[in-house]
């Protein structure tokens, strides 16, 4: 779906916005549309290559966040001979008051956008996902994403590689397999698959980890109104499902800036 293109204020010291690199209209999920800090400067990694650190604000029910992740990974793969990468995921809530018990995706988006726009959006997103080698599944439920963000935050303490793998599993479950992101068993299955420890204990207590999620939200996502949002080496900002070439240009600029 083409999410609403938003006007955002520059966050002063937060750095340069590079959204204009994309000739197409910016596409992302926004608080109004739904469908729709910083890390250190570039430094040498253990391999001698420059380290590019990427902070990503996203929600686990945002399809553009999955698209953005796939395009980011293509850019990283094409740039791996030049740079090492560290990707860190941070929470954002498109629908913070969404019900814990969930609601059918199709019903929710038809109510929110109307049947005609829903059908157009679904058709377009299906085409975009197929272009990435994925099948877009609109079956199942949507709803509150707090538990998924609690789990992602926990995973970050066990390594950003594990955290990234968990985000992939959750996106695959929700967008390609029709699984509900608020289902405890879905979350546990994803955690076990990528080797996250302590997931069951975390999810048994609905208050555990909530404060940390809120801290992450305030630190990384309070100044934005749509996702995905990427901050590269603490300075260069990109929003929406940008193409790999845009990410690659941002990598080069960030590396030169930190030389």
Structure description:
- By secondary structure, the chain is α+β, with helices and mostly antiparallel strands.
- It has a single domain, classed as Glutaredoxin, CATH 3.40.30.
- Helix content is 44%, strand content 14%.
- The protein is built from nine helices and nine strands.
- The chain has helices at residues 63-78, 105-113, 115-131, 146-156, 160-176, 184-194, 199-204, 210-221, 244-257, and strands at residues 29-30, 43-44, 50-58, 83-91, 103-104, 141-142, 226-227, 229-232, 236-239.
- The strands form three sheets. Strands 2, 3, 4, 8 and 9 form a five-stranded mixed beta sheet that branches. It has a two-stranded antiparallel ribbon with strand order 1-7.
- A hairpin with a 5-residue loop joins strand 2 and strand 3 (50-58).
- Helix 1 (63-78) crosses helix 9, helix 2 (105-113) packs across helix 3 and helix 5 packs across helix 6 (184-194).
- The chain is globular.
- Mean pLDDT is 86; it is low at 1-14, 17-26 and 31-42.
- This is DSBA-like thioredoxin domain-containing protein.
Summed up, what is this model?
With 259 residues, the protein is α+β, with helices and mostly antiparallel strands. It contains nine helices and nine strands. The protein is globular.
Helices and strands in order:
Blueprint: E1 29-30, E2 43-44, E3 50-58, H1 63-78, E4 83-91, E5 103-104, H2 105-113, H3 115-131, E6 141-142, H4 146-156, H5 160-176, H6 184-194, H7 199-204, H8 210-221, E7 226-227, E8 229-232, E9 236-239, H9 244-257
Parallel strand pairs: 3-4
Antiparallel strand pairs: 1-7, 2-3, 3-8, 5-6, 8-9
Helix pairs in contact: 1-9, 2-3, 4-5, 5-6
